[in-house]
Write a structure and sequence with these properties.
- This protein has 6 helices and 7 strands.
- The protein is an alpha/beta fold.
- It has one domain: Rossmann fold (3-Layer(aba) Sandwich), CATH 3.40.50.
- Strand 5, helix 4 and strand 6 form a beta-alpha-beta unit.
- The longest helix is centred in the middle third of the chain and has 15 residues.
Length: 147
Amino acid sequence: MIVMSVDDRIMTRILRASTIAVVGLSKDPAKPSHDVASYLRSHGYRIVPINPTISQFLGEKAYKSLLDLPEELKGQIDVVDIFRRAEDVPPIVEEAIELRTNYGHPTAVWMQLGILNEDAAESARAAGLDVVMDHCMKIEHSRLQPK
């Protein structure tokens, strides 16, 4: 029997998602956001790119922000995966909270490796969102999914 930490339980619950908005997704294949999003897509997740500087990612239309999503998509986002500097996280989390308040989704905010913003995390938790900081979704998916 595998004993999971609380973080493992939260991450496992989050990884049951189907649609992930990747904020800061780069079109550059050398960037971590591109690699992680490509990996997640190859494992069955729908990736919704959030980046004002790109028009699409692997055929999926990109949006400037979470609030720029079309109405029908706003209630489908399960996880907001953030690839932005820690100081840029609070407004992204506020948008995620606004979506959750109005559409019941997302259910989680995930800040990638090296990204920690405890104030934003506390706001997200207070709004009922699961929060992961300083972890990579690709690494955790690979580690926590059955072989």
